[in-house]
């Protein structure tokens, strides 16, 4: 084994956990991720602490809850001095290689107002060495130039992702071997063989994130009629006022380019689910190529492999699409960790969070975890142990406000910007959703009707509601920004504690 292991960190955009293991997995072919999990440690109760893409990736890379980094929307800047995975390992002499994107909005302080980094939320997070630049909205030039070189007539975004036909499930205009997913994988496999041992690669796949357009055969790989039906509210349940506004924010017509009149019917829901499944299988195929290369090159046993997603996708459950809502489908994501010396085929049921991933990579590399990071290393789980005093719940939060153009949540519900957010606490049995605004809370029994029925008004659940609310309050009190929480200025100079 080299002096330092390689790191292959794969992030799949908008992949919900039950596509890999769970309710939807029986309908979806993902053989490579499942084979990897059989040879690794799988975390079945892993949740993203926030969404959408920008905030979730900030949390993933900085190890911070959104309440601390405060980059709560796509385009909200991240403080320039916030440590992240790339800056920490770069300071340790390791080149953090990026293949793809990070969705990072830069701190405007110290930058010229005309700096191009202040014109997109899809910018590069500090510290990374950008090997392959890919952006879904603003800069896919590397992939598009590759398509042109192969003879394709490439339209401007968003028509790059318009189906080449009159139906939403028409194929993309490019072949599967030339897709954005294939292109990114090709570039990784061209570059990594030239890197000396001890490399650290962050590979970010855009798919199965919308727009939902897939190259043949993935566009028709799954039959809509065979799709499992989305989850629905209990027959007597009145949806929370948050739900219709969330539905309006992400209509089904926004999933596919060129079909603005697409209506939410059982047939179109099934069709969108089938397209999503196809894109997920395409990503799985190319992840398999990366794993095969590791094995063929003799580096599989010398590499820490991390596979996860930034957030999930509601996929029509409860009439919703996207990920900016309180349902678990938006936050429950896969996590597979394979370390050379770790257990094989082990399944962890303890609750883990996206903020634990960066501390785990740092700990595995033997690097100190900055005090600013709220997450904890999962390395003990890799050895088959459960750390003492491990958390008994997971926590997520989202913000649905807009400081420039007020969102529907602000206007329709009369909510101030600073109150336009919610927090989620999940235990093994129950789930609490608390709103910052004066809106009724939500309480779910996850072993009964789950998110289909709100029990917050049940008088027999009042004590439980209070207990979970107190737990959420304690969590907020115990997890403020920790940058200097263990540092003191004393007569002897700076002193830093470790506990």
Note the topology.
Blueprint: E1 6-12, H1 31-38, E2 41-43, E3 46-47, H2 53-62, H3 66-69, H4 85-91, E4 96-100, E5 129-133, H5 141-149, H6 180-191, E6 200-205, H7 242-249, H8 266-296, E7 303-309, E8 335-338, E9 346-348, E10 352-353, H9 357-364, H10 379-382, E11 394-399, H11 408-413, E12 421-426, E13 430-435, E14 442-445, H12 462-478, E15 487-490, E16 493-496
Parallel strand pairs: 1-6, 1-7, 2-9, 3-10, 4-5, 4-6
Antiparallel strand pairs: 2-8, 7-8, 11-12, 12-13, 13-14, 15-16
Characterization of the model:
The protein is α/β, with parallel strands linked by helices. It has one domain (about 5-415): 3-Layer(aba) Sandwich (Alkaline Phosphatase, subunit A). Helix content is about 25%, strand content about 15%. Strands 5-4-6-1-7-8-2-9 form an 8-stranded mixed beta sheet, sandwiched between helices. Helix 6 (about 180-190) runs parallel beside helix 8.
């Amino acid at each position: 084994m080299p002096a330092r292991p390689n790191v292959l960190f794969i992030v799949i955009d908008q992949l919900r956990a039950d596509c890999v293991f769970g309710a939807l997995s029986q309908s979806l072919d993902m053989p490579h991720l499942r084979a990897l999990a059989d040879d690794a440690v799988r975390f079945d109760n892993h949740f993203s602490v926030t969404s959408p893409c920008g905030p979730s990736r900030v949390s993933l890379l900085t190890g911070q809850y959104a309440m601390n980094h405060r980059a709560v929307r796509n385009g909200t800047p991240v403080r320039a001095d916030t440590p992240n995975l790339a800056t920490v390992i770069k300071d340790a002499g390791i080149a953090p290689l990026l293949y793809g994107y990070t969705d990072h909005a830069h701190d405007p302080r110290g930058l010229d107002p005309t700096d191009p980094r202040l014109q997109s939320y899809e910018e590069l997070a500090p510290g990374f060495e950008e090997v392959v630049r890919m952006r879904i909205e603003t800069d896919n030039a590397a992939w598009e130039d590759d398509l042109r070189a192969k003879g394709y007539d490439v339209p401007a975004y968003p028509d790059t992702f318009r189906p080449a036909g009159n139906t939403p499930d028409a194929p993309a205009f490019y072949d599967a071997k030339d897709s954005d997913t294939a292109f990114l994988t090709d570039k990784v496999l061209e570059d990594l063989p030239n890197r000396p041992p001890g490399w650290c690669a962050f590979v970010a796949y855009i798919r199965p994130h919308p727009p939902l357009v897939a190259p043949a055969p993935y566009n028709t790989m799954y039959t809509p009629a065979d799709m499992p039906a989305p989850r629905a509210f209990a027959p007597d349940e009145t949806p929370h006022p948050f739900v219709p506004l969330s539905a309006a924010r992400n209509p089904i017509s926004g999933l596919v380019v060129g079909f603005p009149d697409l209506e939410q019917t059982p047939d179109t829901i099934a069709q969108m689910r089938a397209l999503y499944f196809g894109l997920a299988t395409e990503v799985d195929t190319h992840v398999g190529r990366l794993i095969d290369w590791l094995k063929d090159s003799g580096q599989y046993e010398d590499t820490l492999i991390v596979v996860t997603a930034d957030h999930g996708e509601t996929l029509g459950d409860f009439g919703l699409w996207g990920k900016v809502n309180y349902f678990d489908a938006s936050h429950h994501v896969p996590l597979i960790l394979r370390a050379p010396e770790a257990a094989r085929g082990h399944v962890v049921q303890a609750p883990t969070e996206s903020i634990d991933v960066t501390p785990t990579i740092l700990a595995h590399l033997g690097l100190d975890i900055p005090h600013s990071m709220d997450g904890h290393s999962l390395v003990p789980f890799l050895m088959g142990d459960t750390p003492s005093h491990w958390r008994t719940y997971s926590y997520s939060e989202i913000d649905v406000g807009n400081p420039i153009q007020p969102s529907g949540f602000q206007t329709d519900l009369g909510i101030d910007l600073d109150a336009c957010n919610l927090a989620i606490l999940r235990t093994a049995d129950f789930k609490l959703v608390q709103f910052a605004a004066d809106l009724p809370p939500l309480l779910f029994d996850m072993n009964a009707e789950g998110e289909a029925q709100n029990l917050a008004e049940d008088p027999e659940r009042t004590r439980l509601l209070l207990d979970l609310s107190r737990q959420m309050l304690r969590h907020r009190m115990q997890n403020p920004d920790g940058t200097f929480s263990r540092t003191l200025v004393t007569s002897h100079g700076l002193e830093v504690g470790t506990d």
